[in-house]
Write a structure and sequence with these properties.
The protein has 14 helices and eleven strands. It is α/β, with parallel strands linked by helices and 476 residues long. Strand 8 and strand 9 form a beta hairpin. It is globular, with a radius of gyration of 24 Å. Bound molecules: pyridoxal-5'-phosphate (PLP).
Length: 476
């Protein structure tokens, strides 16, 4: 296919995408297909002969689209958002067209230097410490794994990188600490980095689901007594279940006292720190060694784009650098080669979409949108509280409301409440009009409504509340 084919189909596709954006509310938010349904419509073997784009595009619409859950639907309230925006999408088109690899400076100087600059912009927007340097990773899971690897190499004097765990010197059990509410990526990262699941301590939380620093210190002391080596603490600014905020300052002080690597996982909530009135959520980050948040969750930048900051890039680079002859260049001493700042060699040009987004909205535009989501969540929580048939299950600090159906007058047993709330969730999601997910808080089945899609307005939240009330109305 030639550029003129691209021009022809490109125009057609752009028109289709713009229509899709305008009509997105006519699609069910949660795909309503059954397991295997899409697979059964796909030929078992690839075509021997070329097929036309028209034919492939038709199948995209007929077969693929019904199996898509619409994360860009303004009534997507599930999990956490993975929002996007027009400027981000436009930049992604250019990124795909360039098809550049951003492994070293020479493989695309502009990519390296733009990445350096936009990460400085983000650092300023969040008022992170000035000595933090940033790099874009694919996901927070990868960023946290990088932090764990840095922590491991710091405490072993780069010994595991050099000799492996069973190398020259015996390394006692290294331990990672996070709260019981921490994201699964920490345990996964700990497994991959060689700490093992049994090298992870999950610390008790308080009534608001935030890590108890005194329990953390107890666990560290206990490990030291047992001959283990405390290595790293991962605190959450915004846990996944309820967006609980671990006390960073206290945790950071403990990390300083025991000389542990301190990583802050603010994957979703971090974006809110661009608001003056919410910057306090990361107070204490000045004590951290590394920090991650995802512009691909709540900063209108298409997946994937995870912002990872590290206080000591030298240490990060020493952990990850490789230097084979075929990648050496004359300017290596003068430039940033981001292949040495993480796991991948080949890297997408992700800085471009972030640059487009920050410039097209301006910092104030981004603050306005995020502030509005937070305001809508507070309003939704108020509706819940004022209705005697529902209860709020966790503090609402930002854009997530955890709640459940529980009519006070009826005094229903827990098992019945679980049944009813499951039914409510299934009814709502089955309607295709909105999509919520659930969690368990203190063992209680809890619904989560997270407001973060780019185009979610008050009307969408109002409609959600009405749907919730109507669906639960049939329980009476
Ligand atoms: C979403 C989330 C993650 C995982 O993010 P990915 O970018 O999908 O790896 C980790 N931690 C927290 C707190 C999250 O909200």
């Amino acid at each position: 296919m030639k550029p003129h084919d691209f021009r022809e189909y490109g125009h057609q596709f752009v028109d289709w995408i713009a229509d899709f954006m305008e009509n997105i509310e006519s699609y069910p938010v949660l795909s309503q297909v059954q397991p295997g349904e899409i697979l059964s419509r796909l030929p078992a073997s690839p075509p021997d002969k070329p097929e036309t784009i028209d034919r492939i595009f038709k199948d995209f619409k007929d077969i693929i689209l019904p199996g898509i859950t619409h994360w860009q639907h303004p009534s997507f309230f599930a999990y956490f958002p993975a929002n996007g925006s027009v400027p981000s999408l436009l930049a992604e088109m250019l990124t795909s067209a360039l098809g550049a690899q951003c492994m070293v400076w020479q493989t695309s100087p502009a990519a390296a230097e733009l990445e350096e600059r936009v990460m400085e912009w983000l650092r300023k927007m969040l008022k992170l410490p000035e000595d933090f340097a940033g790099v874009i990773q694919d996901t927070a899971s990868t960023a946290t794994l990088c932090a764990l690897l840095c922590a491991r190499e710091k405490i072993t004097g780069f010994g595991v990188n050099e000799s492996g765990f069973g190398g020259d010197k015996v390394i006692n059990r290294l331990v990672v600490y996070a709260s019981k509410e921490a994201h699964s990526s920490i345990e996964k990262g700990a497994k991959i980095a060689g700490f093992g699941k049994s090298g992870v301590r999950l610390i008790e939380v308080d009534a608001d689901f935030a890590m108890l620093p005194e329990k953390l210190e107890e666990a560290i002391v206990e490990d030291q007594k047992a001959g283990n080596v405390p290595c790293c603490v991962v605190a959450a600014t915004g846990t996944t279940s309820s967006l609980a905020l671990d006390p960073l300052k206290k945790i950071g002080e403990i990390c300083r006292k025991y000389d542990l690597w301190f990583h802050v996982d603010a994957a979703m909530a971090g974006s809110a720190a661009i608001l003056k009135e919410k910057r306090h959520i990361i107070d204490g980050v000045e004590l951290a060694d590394s920090f991650v948040f995802n512009p691909h969750k709540w900063l209108f930048t298409n997946f994937d784009c995870s912002a990872f900051f590290c206080r000591s890039p030298k240490h990060l680079i020493r952990t990850f650098s490789i230097n084979p002859e075929y990648l050496k260049t004359d300017v290596d001493m003068k430039v940033k080669n981001y292949r040495d700042w993480g796991i991948q060699l080949g890297r997408r040009f992700r800085a471009l979409k972030l640059w487009f987004v920050i410039r097209a909205y301006g910092v104030e535009g981004l603050q306005g949108k995020i502030g509005n989501h937070i305001k809508l969540a507070a309003e939704f929580a108020r509706w819940i509280e004022e209705d005697g048939r529902f209860e709020v299950m966790a503090p609402v600090s930002l854009n997530l409301v955890c709640f459940r159906y529980n009519p006070k007058v009826q005094n229903l047993p827990e098992t019945r409440l679980e049944e009813l709330n499951k039914q409510l969730l299934d009814d709502l999601n089955g309607s295709g009009k909105l999509f919520l997910t659930h969690t368990r808080l203190n063992g209680k089945f809890t619904l989560r409504l997270c407001i973060g899609q780019t185009n979610t307005s008050r009307a969408h939240v109002q409609n959600a509340w009405e749907a919730i009330r109507n669906s639960s109305g049939s329980f009476l």
